[in-house]
Sequence to fold (646 residues):
Amino acid sequence: METVLEVNDLQTRFHIPEGTVYAVNGVSFHVNDGETLAVVGESGCGKSVSMLSILGLIPIPPGEIVSGTALYLEHDLLTKSESEMEHIRGKEIAMIFQDPMTSLNPVLTIGRQITESLRVHLGMSKQEATQRAVDLLDRVGIPESANRLGDYPHQFSGGMRQRVMIAMSLACDPTLLIADEPTTALDVTIQAQIVELMIHLQEQYGMSMIWITHDLGVVAGLADRVMVMYAGYIVEEANVDEIFDRPRHPYTRALMDALPRVDRRRNRRLKSIAGAPPSLMVEPRGCPFAPRCVHVIERCSSENPPLLSVGLSHKTACWVDMDTGKAV
Amino acid sequence: MESITPAQSAIPRLPVDELDTPPLTLWQLTWRRFRRHKMALGGVVIIILLFVYAFGGALLLPESVANYADTSMRLQPPSLEHPFGTDSIGRDVMARTISGGQISLTIGLTAVIIEVLLGILIGAAAGFYGGGLDSVLMRFTEAMLNIPEIFLLIVMAKFFGGKIPNLEIMGRMYSGSVIVIVMIIGLTSWMYLARIVRAQFLSLKENEFILAARATGTSNSGIIFRHVMPNSIAPIVVAATLGVANAILAEAYISFLGLGVQPPTATWGNMLDGSLNYLESAPWLWFFPGFLILLTVLSINFLGDGLRDALDPRSRAV
Fold:
């Protein structure tokens, strides 16, 4: 299977007046052709920053990409110039954002916003682009699409706007689609519709997808592989079945335990993870999860465990073997 | 049970076709808000009439009439032959307010074009790129703001005055001083607009839709002109409108001091200059040009006020 995107040792920091924010600390992963990779983690763990870094959308300064490569079909995106990246963004790699209420320009008609990338990237004429826009809106399930091109974003509901955003991102038939929590701002029934739509569209377009979320339910229904992030590190990476059946990192386990479940006793209190995530303003040392970990050993506070294989396509970064409870 | 309670009858019923009409576009909404503003509507009407007066009136009383001096008819009060009277060398005041009006209004509009171009360019560059460029441009803007505008106007008028030759555009001679005045007013008034544009860009560029636009591969110029500019058009339009009034006033001021447009080309401003010695003996000399300036500036200010309300989408007057 061909690798579409391969990221190696990506480190992103922000230099702000209060100090340095260690947002992403050496992240390596890959996305295969036609695959859906889910990136899971709590807010501020570096999910979005990693993706924005790859696309060159981090404001520099204050941001700084300290090290790393991001090979898209064997070309390093991090060394490309801004104008080269403009040809890749939207055409090769598209991105959908979290909040459809703020991701569309309020004073431009949606027709204009969809046709813009068609005309920039594919050099289409106005008529061709309009025709394509109607077709795209049909595909994402907007009724009477031809009549709605002249409408402004405020005339659409949240779910419909997210469909418009999806239509925009699919306009140039991208190879890779990065969806940054595309369902977080929507209510549950609309969420399900959007997830359904995305699965359907991915099959149709045969693209790879990176789906950033903190909703494990969505992950289970959609992902091929899952990557768990914590405080700017990848702590575990595995196939979707593996991660739900046999989580190997204490953080992943704690996350799974914290899930409310229909098949458990009703009066059981929901579990939470004790403590709070570490401050990203301190240079990381040791395992970032150590202060909250129930399996912590001495080595954890001084040495950060590398991401090691623990099975077929299953990697985890922990000094303790969860199955035996012994140090590795 | 036919009785209708007062509460029920008080509910306004929408006509059926109101529900079927398509939603209004932004411009339709803007027009709806604008036409509620009676003063602004009046302002628009007066501005149109003033343009008709200055540019249409020239058909009846062309510039040759305005510059024809009949020394036997000096300082005549208003009469049927000379409705606004004649000036100190016997020229018809009405004809001069007509051709002067063309110059004054043209100066107002063209100076604002320069003002807007400079203001947008400097404000957008500072707000969008930020950092060092922003600091340099804003310190320069503040420096310009710190020098009193009148002082700048006078110094620049003195410096450039007479250095630009007369121009012939569309069969009419324009005194080089007209171009000088347009440049000077444009160059001394962009600072306010630049600050507005910068503030707009600073806040707008942080919006998620800008990030989304960049993620679809939009270039910097595309972001600036297709995404940020349309969002900041309202304050720019309002500032530009009020700028026209200020430019007309500035021209009047500088011409009144004798540093502006040079005779025989008439403007409302330099007509006032010529009337200074006849304040009491020939009040018609200053009344008519003065009244026209007042009317223009007032109407434009009403228009600007109306636009400010109409273009603000948060305004509740729909």
Notes: The interface with chain B takes residues 55, 57, 61, 82-83, 85-91, 94-95, 97, 99, 102-108, 116-117, 120-121, 150-152, 155, 165, 168-169, 171 of chain A (CB under 8 Å).
